[in-house]
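Assess this one:
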Amino acid sequence: MTQPINHALALDRSRDARARERFVSSLRGYVLNDLAGAMREDFDSGVAAHAENAADAGPMDGAGVHRAIRKRDIFKAYSSARCTAQQMVWDVVMDSVEQQRERLNAVGRELTDKASAGGTLELDPSLGIPRYVEAVDVHLMPGCYHRERGGEDLAAGAIYDQGLNVFAFGAMGKELNDIGWSMANFYKLRFDHRSPGRILDAGCTIGHNTLPWKQVFPDAEVHGIDVAAPCLRYAHARAEAMGVAAHFHQQSAEHIRFPDNSMDVVFSSMFLHELPKKAIRNYLAEAHRVLKPGGVLLNMELPPNDRMAAYDQFYLDWDSYYNNEPFYKDFRDQSPKQLTMEAGFSADAYFEGVMPRYTYTEEKDFIAMAQADAKFGEDTGRLSDIIFWYGFGSVKQG
């Protein structure tokens, strides 16, 4: 179910609008839990069992599972329902945002003019939007994240905030920020309660997972960068509304405009799989450049395919074929460790972890799993009622 959005940019929705949002959120929960479970049972009892009995059967990878299952009725039903539900996520929030756009923009201006929390916003109108952003409505979101509607507009950020609330069906924390809380606390545990001075969140969108770093490390200076101006306007206003000081900048993660050796942490969440291979490498090289010696790169991401069972490879890669995620599978087919090494990090400095959701878990259980060796299973990186986040990174030597 949806979570209440309590900050000043929350939409004033009618009872009918709230009911539609709850319906779509519940539908997504049904598709990603119940219908997905039925599809897995059908595969195990039908496709997999038949393959095991075939004389020429060899090991099946994720692509093989996809080829074998895509003609089955349950797969067609699942895929149709999931695509429809994804489109409905945006449909049920866009009307409310459009009807209240002028009010939202006015509230945003008031919040950012006061800037009582102490955050800042720096936009760059000359920054070109990369084609891999501009050409694709990622996640089927109309207009994607960068679409301007004129003036000091923040509608795209509002659509994303409200849409993610419906999309996540209550699985990403009360403020849709569990990833940020989980990764900040993973960092704190992994690096013996180190207190970073400057933290950078690359591809921050509206700052859901940026602000927890400031809340976990209140003395840190926290920055978020993104190419999408409407999302950054919303991120700044949202942070001020929540009383959290963070600094947002319109920058490309391929060309970070911070000095060499200036950051203690460079973080990203669900960002790399939105980039083509060249852009991933450019970002990681830039992260290495701006990190101080001893600084930490930490990326929360989808788990790599070579660490997952064949069916789970297929299940996660579904988005690459049907959800406007063209770079999703390409990223997951790569080695995260190799990517960090190509960026200049040492092989010995690489680390990874799989952990439960921090804001849903007893702290002792989170600590135990976050400090253990990474163990991958069907719920790693998979949005469902049970999620385990995957993070990987490295430490800059020197």
Notes: The mean pLDDT is 94. The two ends are 47 Å apart (CA to CA).
